[in-house]
Design brief:
CATH architecture: Orthogonal Bundle
Number of domains: 1
Helix content: 55-70%
CATH class: Mainly Alpha
Order of helices and strands: HHHH
Number of strands: 0
Shape: globular
Strand content: under 5%
CATH superfamily: ACP-like
Radius of gyration: 11 Å
Distance between the termini: 18 Å
Number of helices: 4
Length: 81
């Protein structure tokens, strides 16, 4: 697991799962599992922007980019690439 993916995972666990990572896989859908709501998506975006120095555009706020640890990690790699 890459360092960025680890940071994303830790953020999700700490902020949305109250430290309980049971059942959280890298491909678990945040929306389907009720882990993150629309407010949570904004928190996740703020975390990405502040920690990785990227700018997330409105049109990038889609599940394909932000709905699992894998998706967020891939999106981040593309933004940083």
């Amino acid at each position: 697991m890459g360092e960025n993916k680890t940071k994303i995972r830790e953020f999700i666990i700490e902020n949305f799962l109250f430290g309980n990572a049971d059942g959280l896989k890298d491909d678990t859908s945040f929306l389907e599992e009720g882990i993150i709501d629309s407010t949570g998506v904004l928190e996740l975006v703020t975390f990405l922007e502040e920690n990785f120095g990227i700018q997330v555009e409105d049109e990038e706020l889609i599940p394909e980019n932000l709905d699992s640890i894998d998706n967020v990690s891939s999106f981040l790699e593309r933004k940083l690439g």
